[in-house]
Amino acid sequence: MTKSALQIARAAYQPKLPKALKGAVKVQEGEPTHSVADEEEIKKLFPNTYGMPLIRFVEGENKEFAPMNVGVILSGGQAPGGHNVISGLFDGVKKLNPANKLYGFILGPGGLVDHKYTELTAETIDEYRNTGGFDIIGSGRTKLEKEDQFEKGYEILKELGIKALVIIGGDDSNTNACVLAEYYAAKNYGIQVIGCPKTIDGDLKNEMIETSFGFDTACKTYSEVIGNIERDCNSARKYWHFIKLMGRSASHIALECALQTQPNICLISEEVEAKNMSLDDVVTYIADAVAARAAKGNNFGTVLIPEGLIEFIPAMKKLIAELNDFLAVHAEEYAAIEPNKQREYIISNLSADNAAVYASLPEGVARQLTLDRDPHGNVQVSLIETEKLLSEMVGKKLAAWKAEGKYTGKFSAQHHFFGYEGRCAAPSNFDADYCYALGYTASMLIANGKTGYMSSVRNLTAPAEEWIAGGVPITMMMNMERRHGEMKPVIQKALVRLDGAPFKAFAAARDTWAKETCYVYPGPIQYFGPSEVCDQPTKTLQLEQAK
Ligand code: FBP
After folding, report:
1. Which of these, 200, 203, 180, lies nearest to 477 by C-alpha position?
2. Looking at the structure, do residues 265 and 412 belong to the same domain, yes or no?
3. 321 and 363 assigned to the same domain
């Protein structure tokens, strides 16, 4: 395989480990834990894994460990650093006993159920150290939730002599990891399950999980290109760039990129919801800023739009909820209708309010809202072209204002969507180190007999040497939520907090960014060079942890 010069140089990078993990370790137990909410229900559902203590690894004495095999699964969307979680896990497992083996299940949780796996040897691991992507074993979105899946999994785990399974995934996958850990514990199968916090979306976080891996690299990759667009925008001075950014639900990515690049406008879905804004309110907000800049002769700008925005506009949220219920029952009937009559069909079957909102949407967006849902029942927001919807509506509003003499500028829009571009970038130094430490920590949790824990590495704004490694019981992050019409235990998703330091810093500066041109050009991720250029954590982490 031909490799780029950077790939070759980067393969030699040795990720930094926290001091406590460099030699032998021992467990320091903290206080017993409680779920974030709904304690009684969660306790009842997880009798074997509820209430376990927080764990921190500290320097210990060398011990001998009997040989064991470990399995690993990559679950859900790609995030930079996944290969380093696996190489950290591999190195940890081999350090415990060189006879230990690591098996990878192919294409996500489905590989466990369908018994598709491969042994990860030193040679394979060395090919993938410090690289982006999940291609070492592939990923998938199969939901592990049914007893027969758990049993099928057990069959292969037993056959391969696997003592512990590491699931690298987001909130849904770690919820499933917790359910699986409880199931195997209840059955006394002797198989431990450990989770690792992955997602570029950054919404799997809490006091003990300061950030999910991949968020750092993905945001830096998007910020590089947003900066490039800003510079183009400020050079040609003739376009408004509407840039949609991934993040299925929460707006962490948009907010972080805004803090890094200082665009003219950045929408935050959580604020739109909190202020009960309508689609027209959002459009007016953008159009006002465009008109104010035009009045000063600046017919250009950049707008960042979080991918999940549509679902946070209260009226749209209601419409999507009704569409979900309706299509769950009438999907076949809908598909059989001639395409040019489908819009009418939907309008005639919705309640009056929702029908009116649906009818007001441009054709393309209306159609996108009726497309197939993902396996978790979610609208596939990455397919909805919000950036085009908004620019089209802003253009119409400005034309109306022009007719009324309220606006005299020129409005010409360009559209972009950044998502997949950042999910497999070569991990930044931060993600390379963080992921390696997460994987290594998972091996120590396994060695110490733990199950139902998520690997946790904290104190992330300090140098890697001072990071704190340990484990958090997954039940601690859970609450009960309605899913597919039933109350289910799930890890609570972390949305952007409007009272949090990152949003406050943004809110304090955004009016100036809208009026003036304050663009910042972060440039590409640097892997070699001065620490202040190569090793900065995200602005989100820096602001959250500023003491
Ligand atoms: P995870 O939560 O599984 O990490 O995936 C996040 C994400 O990248 C979202 O930002 C995006 O909406 C979605 O995946 C896209 O899914 P797919 O990869 O299936 O197109």
Report:
1. 203
2. yes
3. yes
